[in-house]
Amino acid sequence: MASFIKNKLKSARELLAKKDYAAAKNAAEDVLSYEPDNYNANVFLGLSNLELGNKDAAEQAYRKATTIAPEQLLAWQGLSKLFERTEQWDKYIEALHALADLLVKSDDAQKLAEQIQRIIDLRRSHGTPQQLVEALKLTLPASPYYTALSSLPGADASAPTATTTFDLQRAVHHTLPTLEEIVSIVEKEEQTFIKREIDKRRTRLNAGPIEQVKREVGREVWSVSQLPTIYAEIFAHPDASEPVRRAIESKLLRYRLQYLQVLGTNAQFEATRETLSAEIMDMLSGMVLLKIPDELAWTTYLDAKNALHIADYDWSLLRTFCELFPESLATKQLEAYIKFTGEELGHEGNDEDVKEQVPPEDLDEDVLLEDMMTAFEKGAATILGSRLLADIYSRLRDHTNSIKVTQIGVERVNKIEAELAVKLDLSRRAFNIILATGLVHHFPPKHHSRAIPILDDILSHDPDNVASLLARGYVLQSAQMWEKALNIFNHAARQSGDTEDNHLEAAEESGWCLANLKRFDEAEASLCAVLETVRDLDNREEQKARLSWRIGRCLWGAEKFQEAYSRYIAALRFSNEFASAFTSLGIYYLNAVSPPDTARASKCFQKAFELDAREASAAQYLAEGFADEQEWDLVEIVAKRTIEGESGQSADPVAAQAQKYLPINAWAWKALGIVELNHRNYQSSIGFLQIALRADDKDAAAWSRLGEAYLLSGRHMAALKSFVHAKDLDPTNWAIDYFVAWVKFDLTEYDEAVTLYRRILDSHPEETGVSFALANASLLAGKKHRATGFFARSLEALAESISLAVQLLHSSVTFKSAVWKLLNDSLLELPMTRLGREESLFSSLGEVLELLRGSTGEVSAVLPLPTDIDDASSSAPISLILAAHVAQSRVHLLAANDGPGRAAALHDLSIVLHRVALSVASKSTQTASRKFMLKVIRECVKLDPNSDAHWVTLGVASFEDNVEMAQHAFIRAIEIDGTNASHWAQLGLLYLHHGDRELANQALFRAQLLDPDLSMAWGGQALVAIANGHNRDAQSLLTQSVNLTEAQPAFELEYAARELRSGSPQSQTMDQDRLLAVFAVLDRLVQRQSENTTGLYLLALVCERLHLYSRAIESMLRCSSIVETLYEQTEDSDLERRFVFINSAMGRFRLANGDYDDAIVAIDTARSLLTSLTDDDVHVLTAHGQFVGGLARVKTGDLEGAVELLEAAVQNVPADWHDLRGHASLLLAQTLWSLGTAEARSAASGQLLECISANPEDLAAIVSLASMGLLLTDDDLVNASLSEILSLPLHQRLELDPRRDVVHIRVQRHLLLNEHRKALLEAQRARHVEPNGDAVKTLLARFLVQSAAPVAAASVLSLDGGALSIDAATLRLGAAAAIQSDKTDDIRAARVAQRAIMLQPWDKAGWRTLAATVGTN
């Protein structure tokens, strides 16, 4: 077997040499079939499969061979060849590494080098950067192959091709380039990964801010980065040159800085931060010590320096920095600072290396400051740079810029502390000292609230810091805490030397505190001592002037005015631009000179204000003077400049509101508010006044002005609150009450406005403006009361308005035209009725009549003034006559060249004349009024053709007689104001009146679109619908019209008339709600127009249907009186006819009210007048009068006379008036029956039989005839009378007998025969036929109550059912059943009785039922 295997392996080797791979494969498989673990056979099989293209089988064979003998090279070499040919690079690298491991063991350095060289080359061409780095590391000392590789000789640069491993030999013996290549690869790879990862993460839904994402990615990458280790290897490499080491050190520094920055302040990384911070600080110290020219290292080192003063910096280091980086912006800034200050901080006189830095005399400080600012703005913000520039600004007292720069410096300190994990408390304090000083002096006291906590923090650590003490003292001065400020300044003076600037400043302010404490002698002495100290010092002119002025103020306080004046003059000699001295001189000229020299004072104030806008006293004097002269533009200029001087910004109310400080000069904001109020810029005015009140909320005038601004801007509730505040502060100021009344007036609370105006006039009766306002408020109150139905209150208010207007006209007011207008409007608001002496308006109208006595003109010809208010001979209502003369007086008052004014007056006159024409009955007066109105309105239009109201009035004047003129006028009005819905409505009514319904409908529809609440438009549409025969739509439109405000009387009358015509006498209960609505409309109408006879007549008819007979009689009597008076004046036949109708209705009303004798009189009067009428209604009126007269005589017992009238009524009723004939016949039969004779009763039966024969369905006659049969116990008569109706189908019978009178008759028939059970069965049978019928239910319940079965009756009626709400009688019956039953709640019974009363409050039976329930309870 061994020889067989050996021969087969030999054969396979020979076949492979001959490239007969298939046979070789078979030979190898034969060996493996006997010996599967044969290494050579697996290798031969792998090679055969590889050559045959069976790559998977080849790899499988090679793999098996490596497991059999892993230390043998042949199988691994085969695998490497396989993977190289199939380009499986990762497996190829794996195989090469396996070969390298075997070659290391065999110590074959040359072949090992070839394998490593192949790995590196392969990674360069087919690997990732990270894989290349790993391959390059195989040549470094840490590699497991380094020992074997280092045994190779060094690379001979002169013969690079002498060996196949030249590059590897050079890399092994010179590792620095390899390290540098690794660094470049890793740096680039990390940057790429960070950028890619940030871009990916920032798009996630839950991603935080971009900075947070950067920190997270940075921590992930740099926490595991290989760079620090590689940097360290390069830095320690013996071949590394000094530049290389410096570059690597710089990279390591930046790496650590950026890693430290991304760690943040999270406690989780605190240990790492501390370690990194220590490493960085060591690196910085070493780099600075070695003077390595890395600017980042130097600036970071200087930023990390914790120094309180600039002098605490190591000047030699700063000088070195300038030498190392001469072109740096920081160097330029430092050099400019040295030149500006004229000294080198940290300089020692014996230092030979320090150059002379004394600036020349012609050194331009502005240029140096500009250089520093430019360097600061262009370069990166550093702590040292911020401190240098802030120090310069602080020395120059440029507080605005010092604040800005120090804030940048503090931000830099915070950033350095967070990034380097170091503490810079001294640097922060240095910035805070400059910042607090700047905040204190920057437009004090605007920023004091920010400065105080900063100062407190500084002084808590350094209580003797002079700069902070001075700043704290100034804050106390601004708060007028002079005693505390004095102590602070004295402490500051003690802490500074006697000759230092701080000492002089503290001593001066200490003296000024004494002056404000009114310790003038001490203050003068202290200030004089400081003045003597600085007198001989140069460049102290402003300080000398201030000291001299303050000494003058001390003398002024001690009332040594002349000496104070001398000191003010001395101050100006020191500095002629010291503004406070000019202000004090102005005050001196006003208050100390006799007489006051206002001219000089004004010049001084102007000069002071020109020099310094912060001179608030001078500005206030100037503003008050300009305000007295009404120079509001100058007031605005002064106030705005004062505010700019106070806060450093423009007087923008929005920006000012955002400021969180109280303004000093509240008067300036107040002045601006008043200026804007006068300019009608109300919103700006409100903003300014609110700021003023923030500073002084006790200023009543400011509150009042704020309320006025709110009022004029339409914010009435805010205005009211402001006026309430003002009134609380100044209770005696009546102007505030006036404004409150104004607010109430605008809110239509006229009664409250009237009350306030009266209160003002009680204490100030001479205020004619208030009188006029009261009259106007009373006028509008009267209008409001009339619209809401309070007519008595309306008359009282109008009376007051008229009386006040007359009083104003008797006075010497300059606005008499407005008063005449007010008086005219008040008179037009009065109801058009004749007033008796008992009315409240009598005296007021009498005053107007006396005022107009002797009035002449065309109005007098048309409407002459009556001799007395209640003159019955007046041609028109007295209010309209007076209004016409008042309007004429207003026209006469206006100048001829006042076109618009005269046009308005003439328009008012035309309105009055139009009303006169509508209200008078006299044809001549109507004609004259219309003619005069047309003349007046034409002149009005000529004077002012641009007023749409004038054109509308012209259209109304021409409505009847000149349709072309009217159409032109209405269209002209629409052209002027096409959005006025009433113009379109007027045009539509014109078209409708003259027959063009299509155009009328279009115009009225346009009016509805423009104003859906215009009553005229809805009423006009209703008239169009009536003309088109759409009666149902017309009624809906009329209902909408009368329910709107300012409904037109014509539409109200049409609505009421149509509702009355549509009412059904058989369904009065159902129509009650509609009747109440009609009653409300008509009652409102007659209250406004008490002489409207149509309205009074219709109101009486409505009251009749509502059973309000007394009210109906009252309305009809008023209507009769008016018609009778008009008939006496005109003797118009139409009025006579109307009088007949009135008396006919009056007879009916009195009959229903029980006034039978008066009813007979009224009916007889109507009948007596019928002889003069010739129209078709005479027969109906005659029959109606005879019927009512007959019924009245029945009630009075005159049966004979009643029979006579009723027989005549039956004869006179027209044939088509079936209902009236039936009622007359029935009443005649009942009257005949009442005579009691057999003949009369027979005649009564015959009369009823005639009715039934004429109308077989006359239920009233049938029931009456059956009732007679019951009384006569004539069953045949009962059966005969009911037979016709009982033979009808059930539904027809029920429809004919809605009250179920037939069932009632049949029940009563059984009761008369004492057949109670049959009666009950009859009622129950009817209930069974009609279970939901209210009539049969009520009939059955009544029978049960009469039968002493109240519980059953209550059960039948079902007190909880909703159906009981229909009929009051049924409700009363239910209540009666309830109170007789022991099982029913008596309280609920009382409620049912109350419901019955609500339905019929006039019915006494309902009240008796309620009384019974109350008595039971």
Estimate what percentage of residues fall within beta strands: under 5%
Basic shape: flat
Q: What's the main sheet like?
A: none
Indicate the mean pLDDT: 83
Could you name the ranges where pLDDT drops below 50 across 5 or more consecutive residues? 345-361, 653-658, 1064-1070, 1361-1365
How far the N terminus sits from the C terminus, by CA atoms, comes to 136 Å
Total DSSP helices = 74
The chain-level structural class is: mainly alpha
**Integer-rounded radius of gyration:** 59 Å
> Could you estimate the helical fraction of the residues in percent?
over 70%
Please give the number of β-strands.
0
How would you describe what is shown here?
The protein has 1417 residues and is mainly alpha-helical. The chain has 74 helices and no strands. Helix 20 runs parallel beside helix 22. The radius of gyration is 59 Å and the shape is flat.
Quick gist of this model?
By secondary structure, the chain is mainly α. It has 74 helices and no strands. The protein is 74% helix and 0% strand.
Which keywords apply here?
single chain; 1417 residues; mainly alpha
Chain-wise SSE layout:
Blueprint: H1 2-17, H2 21-34, H3 39-52, H4 55-68, H5 73-86, H6 89-106, H7 109-126, H8 129-136, H9 146-150, H10 166-173, H11 176-201, H12 210-222, H13 227-235, H14 242-263, H15 270-289, H16 295-303, H17 315-324, H18 329-341, H19 365-378, H20 383-395, H21 399-420, H22 425-441, H23 448-461, H24 466-478, H25 482-495, H26 501-516, H27 520-534, H28 541-557, H29 561-574, H30 579-591, H31 598-611, H32 616-628, H33 632-647, H34 653-658, H35 666-678, H36 682-695, H37 700-712, H38 716-729, H39 734-746, H40 750-763, H41 768-787, H42 791-810, H43 816-828, H44 841-852, H45 858-862, H46 878-893, H47 899-919, H48 923-943, H49 948-957, H50 963-976, H51 981-993, H52 997-1010, H53 1015-1027, H54 1031-1042, H55 1049-1062, H56 1072-1088, H57 1093-1105, H58 1109-1130, H59 1133-1152, H60 1156-1169, H61 1178-1196, H62 1199-1212, H63 1218-1235, H64 1238-1254, H65 1259-1271, H66 1275-1286, H67 1290-1296, H68 1301-1312, H69 1316-1329, H70 1334-1346, H71 1350-1357, H72 1368-1380, H73 1386-1399, H74 1404-1416
